[in-house]
Design a protein that fits this description.
Helix content: over 70%
Number of strands: 0
Oligomer: single chain
Distance between the termini: 16 Å
Structural class: mainly alpha
Radius of gyration: 14 Å
Shape: elongated
Largest sheet: none
Strand content: under 5%
Order of helices and strands: HH
Length: 56
């Protein structure tokens, strides 16, 4: 589960880098939205991973 959180964080950071700088050009709005979505997904998965209980 934490593996998914790390993946979402990485994708969100890349989208943020492209969206909040002028690298992305005309598609900066899409990159900002994707950054927000993936960072939200990262936080959601991280919270679920930290508070989930495993039964062995």
């Amino acid at each position: 589960m934490l593996k998914f959180a790390a993946i979402f964080l990485l994708v969100g950071l890349v989208a943020a880098l492209l969206g909040f700088t002028a690298i992305a050009g005309a598609s900066f709005a899409v990159a900002k939205v994707l950054a927000g979505i993936f960072l939200f997904m990262f936080l959601l998965v991280l919270v679920f991973a930290l508070f989930s209980t495993r039964t062995a």
